[in-house]
């Protein structure tokens, strides 16, 4: 399932969301010109290095000192990505859900919230795998925070989803809480299986970011610190394509 758009149009230009997408894009372009992976080595968050510094074991594995203080890599790692799919997937989710959360939070609070969610997500992964020598990179933890806030702030929103299943292609409309709740449940199940970074995914970073995002949105709503909710639009299910033997 690939989200295409939601039913909540932005009430004003999402300046911060656009700036974050631009910043991640610029860093990714720099990564493409860095075949040796020096940016990942210098700015990625390596749990073992954060806890123990650069030891003989890390040097033997090819890792050196970070370019910034180790605690700062919990933030800098959120602007790095591991490939085109990783980058494009994260930017798609940020593009769809980020403008609406920025709408409700306000621009500066949203920026602080996004960066804080990224740090919290990195910290959650750090706690789940403190001795991992694998560098942690990606904006998905920060974007998980955005998704958690979105689910709480827009419970009646709808998301237009592209469904790909073999030769079957369709676009359907699902309630946003259903899609986001399913996504979170998947992270929780995978993280609970005991593989802190199985298949190269930092599941607990996603879980930590999502929970923090929902909690921050709940507190802001409780104390009435949110901007008014924009008007929703109606999304209709539409068929894109299907094999000729499927009818109905």
- What series of H and E elements makes up the topology? EHHHHHHHHEEHHE
**Record field, number of beta strands:** 4
Sheet having the most strands: 4 strands, antiparallel
* Oligomerization state: single chain
Describe the structure.
This protein has 248 residues and is α+β, with helices and mostly antiparallel strands. It has one domain (10-155, 177-229): Rhomboid-like (Rhomboid-like fold), CATH 1.20.1540.10. The protein is built from ten helices and four strands, in the order E-H-H-H-H-H-H-H-H-E-E-H-H-E. It has helices spanning 15-32, 38-43, 47-52, 56-60, 73-76, 84-105, 107-128, 140-153, 176-192, 203-222; strands spanning 2-6, 158-165, 168-175, 238-241. Strands 1-2-3-4 form a four-stranded antiparallel sheet. Strand 2 (158-165) and strand 3 form a beta hairpin. Helix 7 crosses helix 8 (140-153) and helix 8 crosses helix 9.
Features:
248 residues; alpha+beta; Rhomboid-like fold; four-stranded antiparallel beta sheet; 10 helices; 54% helix; globular
Indicate the topology:
Elements: E1 2-6, H1 15-32, H2 38-43, H3 47-52, H4 56-60, H5 73-76, H6 84-105, H7 107-128, H8 140-153, E2 158-165, E3 168-175, H9 176-192, H10 203-222, E4 238-241
Antiparallel strand pairs: 1-2, 2-3, 3-4
């Amino acid at each position: 399932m690939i989200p295409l758009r939601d039913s909540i149009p932005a009430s004003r230009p999402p300046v911060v969301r656009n700036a974050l997408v631009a910043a991640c894009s610029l860093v990714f372009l720099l990564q493409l010109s860095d075949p040796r992976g020096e940016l990942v080595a210098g700015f990625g968050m390596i749990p073992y290095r954060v806890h123990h510094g650069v030891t003989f074991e890390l040097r033997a594995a090819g890792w050196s000192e970070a370019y910034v203080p180790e605690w700062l890599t919990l933030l800098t790692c959120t602007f790095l990505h591991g490939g085109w799919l990783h980058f494009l997937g994260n930017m798609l989710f940020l593009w769809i859900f980020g403008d609406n959360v920025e709408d409700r939070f306000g621009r500066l609070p949203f920026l602080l919230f996004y960066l804080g969610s990224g740090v919290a997500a990195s910290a959650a992964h750090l706690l789940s795998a403190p001795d991992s020598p694998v560098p942690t990179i990606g904006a998905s933890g920060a974007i998980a925070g955005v998704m958690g806030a979105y689910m709480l702030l827009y419970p009646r929103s709808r998301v237009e989803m592209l469904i790909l299943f073999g030769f079957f292609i369709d676009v359907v409309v699902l309630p946003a809480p259903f899609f986001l709740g399913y996504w979170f449940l998947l992270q929780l199940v995978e993280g609970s299986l005991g593989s802190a970074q199985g298949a190269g995914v930092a599941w607990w970073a996603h879980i930590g970011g999502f929970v923090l995002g929902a909690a921050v949105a709940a507190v802001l709503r409780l104390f009435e610190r949110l901007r008014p909710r924009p008007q929703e639009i109606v999304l209709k299910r539409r068929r894109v394509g299907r094999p000729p033997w499927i009818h109905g």
